[in-house]
Amino acid sequence: MTWARRHRTKHHQRLAKHSTRLSRVNKASDSSPLRAPVPSRPSAPFIQDNAWSDTAKSADQRLLRAVLQSRKLYKTLDSGKAIWPLQLEAALVEGLIQFHPQECRETLMLGRFPGRNQFIARYIWEHTGQWRTPKQVGSRLQQLRESCVDEELRALLFPTALKSPTDRNASEGQGYGPTAEVPRRMVCIDILPRGVLAAPSSLSPPPSPLSDCPETIHISQQPRSLARIDPTITFVSRTPIVAQSKFKVCLGNETIHVENVPLEFVRDAPLPDPSAYLYRTSLVPGFWKSIVASSDPTRYTICQEVTTAESCAVAFSAVYKFSYPAEYSTGFDTFGMSPLNGGMAGLHCGA
């Protein structure tokens, strides 16, 4: 065999071995996937009614539903698990409810709330054992601000500087912000205990220091059953305005309800000044029935601010407190408060 023939034979053998190796590789590639399957995007969780009490024990369940309904994206971790499963969404809502912004310049002027993301992140960790960074919390709150249309949830996302009488310790007298332009009126709603339909003429006035405050308004001369009181409030303005009433209900030191209600213009209202304009709104309409049904309405404090849509200036500020006559009083809490300096919008309590 010549040298050239032996060379061609070895060359063909090498080509055959190379072809065999390629065939084995191709067979192995055909038998195994090229990449791991990408996990599908989780769908919105379907919640049975009896599951709410287990998942959201203290969070407002209606707010949690509003959060879930506002979802547009369902981001996942590398493991395929949702970043915000139902348990963490519930803790996020709870933390948002529990957070009370400081009445500082950054909050009042810029609408920013220092420490809120850190507070909620820590709240989630303490109540679920799972950690979400303040940056992740801020990103989720931003998504809610952009997509949520629920008024009560938006009031939590954009809280005002409303303060209950028990919250005003350090912020009292700082002299800045919208609330410094108007006095905060004390409105005393004298009521009868449940089951008492009419007040005897010999009843003593309520044992409340509110009576000694010059800014206190009593809506009636005699206490009445709360169920018979019309919760309509009317305001008189010298010029036409577009405004909304912001309410906050406090139980002790805890805020349990917030809502925004637009003022309604009352046409053809009989006013002493024909050039004036009359507006009305209901007192905390989303929570009024709960107060009426309560065994002790004096536990509740209602804070109200009326703000104009054009400048967001506070035109009226008031705190409403329920009180029993002395004969029926059994150690309910009372409070006093010094109003801020300034003017006030006209007010008539339609009760």
From TrEMBL:
What region holds the TEA domain? 77-151
Domain of life per record: Eukaryota
Looking at the UniProt feature table, which residue ranges are given for the DNA-binding region? 77-151
In this chain, composition skew of type Basic residues spans: 1-21
Query: What InterPro entries does the entry give?
Result: TEA/ATTS_dom, TEA/ATTS_sf
Any one Gene Ontology molecular-function term assigned to this protein's record: DNA-binding transcription factor activity
Q: Name one Pfam family in it.
A: TEA
Q: Where is the composition biased (Polar residues)?
A: 22-32
Show the segment(s) annotated as Disordered. Answer: 1-48
Q: Which family does it belong to?
A: Belongs to the TEC1 family.
Q: What is this protein called?
A: TEA domain-containing protein
